């Protein structure tokens, strides 16, 4: 495998594609925002002018796009234009049903498609330390492991098509809920005039410990360095968290799941996303409580 097409060269794709080019693959890129492609010339990423052009003569095509509607259109356009049999990997975060439908549609064209959303944000994309949550068929996942290893530090096969997206939504819903809990806890501790470093010391090693408090405490100078120490620069913005929670709420109604806290989290992060703190890191939810 030598020829890779990368579609969607925004905050994430522009960084992920560079790891592949540096490893010696022939990488071509396409984005509707042409100036993003110019930035990648220096990394030996060839500019293609259209989806139909980038679909030809590839061994692998990766998509990293904003939403399910766009992924659906782009994957269908790729399949209408391929000249051989590339594997497709969609790393975007999208709804589970679109992923499942695209897997079936690709299969009917004898093409393997993996849904492989990521966690780790732009820093993970830059450093090649993303986590990939992958759905599809295991044989294709195993074949693509060397590719995941170049862009990430962990990749997990989660099950049949759509399982990668479903896993990502479950993880981010839990993250959102725990971050709100941490915000409420530290706000109440402030009202008790507690020393927040002492509270951190206790909570981070007691039964209240969780990733949101231990690694991402939303209080300046408390716990390890986090966005709170940098004016809540993302990180992972409230807008992206709101997007993922909307997908989770949608998925919950389709699967008849009771997610009372997940729904409340979606309301809170959507309100934040639509306000002045929308571009801030999601941990700034503590200011909205
Ligand atoms: P982004 O908006 O920066 O990049 C998306 C790119 O896709 C843009 O450059 C846009 O011009 C391009 N695009 C849109 N429509 C296109 C089309 N039809 N053809 C070709 N290119 C097209 O978004 P991002 O932050 O890079 O995120 C990409 C995906 O990764 C999203 O699904 C997001 O939810 C997910 N994600 C993002 C982060 C993060 O921290 N940014 C973390 C985890 C997951």
Describe this structure in words.
- The structure is a single chain.
- With 289 residues, the chain is α/β, with parallel strands linked by helices.
- It folds into two domains: 3-161, NAD(P)-binding Rossmann-like Domain (Rossmann fold); 166-287, Orthogonal Bundle (N-(1-d-carboxylethyl)-l-norvaline Dehydrogenase, domain 2).
- The chain is built from twelve helices and nine strands.
- It has a six-stranded parallel β-sheet, with helices on both faces.
- Helix 7 links the parallel strand 8 and strand 9 (152-159).
- It starts with a strand and ends in a 15-residue tail after the last helix.
- It binds nicotinamide-adenine-dinucleotide (NAD).
- Residues 7-13, 30-33, 36, 64-66, 70, 74, 92-93, 118, 121-122, 236, 240, 243 line the site of nicotinamide-adenine-dinucleotide (NAD).
Write out key terms for the chains shown.
6-stranded parallel beta sheet; 2 domains; N-(1-d-carboxylethyl)-l-norvaline Dehydrogenase, domain 2; about 290 residues; Rossmann fold; alpha/beta; binds nicotinamide-adenine-dinucleotide
């Amino acid at each position: 495998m030598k020829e890779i097409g990368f579609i969607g060269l925004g905050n994430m794709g522009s960084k992920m594609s560079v790891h592949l080019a540096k490893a010696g693959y022939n990488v071509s890129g396409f984005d509707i925002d042409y100036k993003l492609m110019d930035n990648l010339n220096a990394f030996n990423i060839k500019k293609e002018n259209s989806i139909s052009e980038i679909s030809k003569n590839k061994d692998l095509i990766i998509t990293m796009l904003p939403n399910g509607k766009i992924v659906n259109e782009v994957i269908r356009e790729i399949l209408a234009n391929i000249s051989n049999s590339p594997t497709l990997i969609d790393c975007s975060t999208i709804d589970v049903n679109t992923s499942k439908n695209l897997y079936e549609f690709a299969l009917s064209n004898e093409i393997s498609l993996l849904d492989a959303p990521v966690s780790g944000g732009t820093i993970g994309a830059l450093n090649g330390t993303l986590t990939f949550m992958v759905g599809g068929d295991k044989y294709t996942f195993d074949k693509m492991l060397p590719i995941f290893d170049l862009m990430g530090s962990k990749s997990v096969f989660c099950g049949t098509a759509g399982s990668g997206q479903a896993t990502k939504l479950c993880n981010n819903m839990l993250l959102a809920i725990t971050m709100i809990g941490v915000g409420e806890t530290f706000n109440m501790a402030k009202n008790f005039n507690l020393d927040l470093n002492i509270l951190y010391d206790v909570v981070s090693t007691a039964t209240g410990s969780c990733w949101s408090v231990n690694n991402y405490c939303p209080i300046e100078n408390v716990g390890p360095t986090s966005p709170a120490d940098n004016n809540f620069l993302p990180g992972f913005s409230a807008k992206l968290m709101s997007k993922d929670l909307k997908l989770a709420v949608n998925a919950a109604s389709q699967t008849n799941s009771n997610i009372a806290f997940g729904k409340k989290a979606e309301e809170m992060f959507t309100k934040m996303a639509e306000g002045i703190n929308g571009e801030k890191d999601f941990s700034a939810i503590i200011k909205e409580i």
